[in-house]
Each structure stands twice: as structure tokens, then as C-alpha cells.
């Protein structure tokens, strides 16, 4: 007997009513998202202790998300004398990607399956990761040079609920870098122009447009209930407000800043350094000139905004590691990135004890 079975072959075997025991070794919350009808559920950690309740002479197909846990369960069962144990090759990810029938809250519709096919093929995303993205709520403070690429790519990736907060109107001098907007949008509130642009890209995304300036008093009301906060402003007051909200509400936050040819990105997760650990106080007047004062190359906020979007996706999907307690700097002239260690300040006014 071979070690594995392909999703299509398993589907055909089930259609032929071959006597098979489908053993799903994922966790209960994963099964709730999507499962093949009729599976026996035994989480991987319990396989050894619960094997005696299974018929060792039966023919088993073991299922997990992509195949790794199923192979461990296969080894465990074989060691216990089960002779006919195969693994579903590619797990539920392969099953769902092939469009085979399943039950659960994350079983993709035809539109979702097609739209997100290329990213769901990544085992780190899969249909279950896509369901997480579609359920996620992300607040982006600032609909400018950083906010435009952030909103465009997060919407395209299927981050289901985006709150965009900005008080400004689209101006002609924004358009060399704020690529979400067109010439016809000049004079419109940025949050409304952003909402229209996102609807053209992906009408399945819910956009909450908040035409307001973020400050200490409205932070909790506007930012609580989100899974990730993003600072995409050029205002120190707003950045400190996002940072304090991240510390107070225990929500991860991704910070970005640009100036002329350079930019930086920092992610705060609970326990890591926060923005105030890096800059305990805002620079004095004139010490941190804005883009309006000193200019910025249009591609720089594009690149930095997309680095922030990648941080958001990492936090939502769990792949790789976020830029926590690290400051990533980018220089467009030399095309160099540097990741500087950023220790947490125990005496920090925002995140310290
Ligand atoms: Zn801090």
C-alpha cells in the first residue's frame, strides 16, 4: 500500500463507497473552518492514547492542513500495528484547492476560490488562512503615500474589513505617490476616494471610511476591535496615539515613515519595543521636516507601504516573523535595507510597567 493518496483519488474512492476511515488529526478550530464530511476527529497529540478505540485492521486516510501532522500520525499508528494507513497528500489545502466538497465556515465559494487561488496555493495561506484574512479587521491611519499601497494590496489580498482614517482631501501634489487616487479625485475626501478605489479592486471588502483626525480622545473609539493597527501618517501626534492604543488595547501595530529617499518600518507586538521606546518624545519644531517641506520620491512610500502590508499579512497569517524589536531602514539611493536591533525600554512611558 502506498504511503499517500491524492485528493482526486480519495474523492473517487469515497464516491465508490470504498470502506475507508478518514482520520482528521487537526485541532477542533481548524475542523470548524473546513472538513471532509464523515471524518473521525483525533488531534495529533491524542493519536497514541486513542488508537485503541480505532479498528487497526481498517484502511485509514489521515488528514491535516498540508500533510506534516498526518505523516507523524501515520508513523505513530504504524508503530502501534496499524498496517493500512495513508496520508492525504497536501492535506485539506490540496483538497479545497481542487474544489472538492467539504463542510465548514471557510469552504471557499467559487469566487473566493478563483480570486485568491494563487495565494491559497501557498501552504502558509491555504483556504484556512484566506478565511482568516477575510474575517480580519485592520485599521489604517492615514490614506496618503503609505496608506495607498497598504489599502490597495490588503484589499487585493482579501483582508475583509478595512478601516481607513484620514481628515484630508486629495490634492494634485499627492498624485505622484498616492496611487489609489486619480486626477478626477482631486478635491474629494481621501477616505471616500479610497473606498471607491478599493471597491473597484475588490468589491468583497468592507471599507469603513472615517473622515477624522486621530487624536488621544478618539483613539479608543476608532481603533478598538481591530486585529492590527497601521500607522501610515506623517504626523507624530497620530503616530503616538496609534502607539498608545496598541499598548493600551494590546493590539499589534505596524509603523512606517518616509523622508526624501529613505524610510523605516517597525512592528510592535505585545512584549516587543514600541514606537515610544525608539522615540520617547516627538522631535521639536523643524527637526523632522515633512514631505511637504523637504520632498519625497514617489516610489519610497510605495516600497515602505508594501513592507508594512507584508507585516500586516505576517501578523494575520503567522508566516515568518514580524519586525518586532527591530527597526528596518531603507535607502532608495543605494537600495539598501538594514535591520537594527531595537531593545524595549523598561522605563518607556507607553509600554513600560
Ligand atoms: Zn515602549
> Stretches where pLDDT falls below 50 for ≥5 residues?
none
Shape: elongated
The helix count comes to 15
CATH homologous superfamily descriptor of the largest domain: NAD(P)-binding Rossmann-like Domain
Q: Order of strands side by side in the largest beta sheet?
A: 8-7-6-9-10-11-12-13
Question: End-to-end span in angstroms?
Answer: 59 Å
**Number of extended strands:** 13
**Total count of domains:** 2
CATH overall fold name of the largest domain:
Rossmann fold
Q: Strand-residue fraction? A: 15-25%
CATH class term of the largest domain = Alpha Beta
Give a short account of the largest sheet.
8 strands, mixed
* Second-tier CATH architecture of the largest domain: 3-Layer(aba) Sandwich
Task: Give the structural class.
Answer: alpha/beta
Radius of gyration: 24 Å
Which ligands does the model contain, each kind named once? zinc ion
Classify the helix fraction into a percent range. 25-40%
Question: Secondary-structure element order, as H and E?
Answer: EHEHEHEHEHHHHEHEHEHEHEEHHHEE
Mean pLDDT: 93
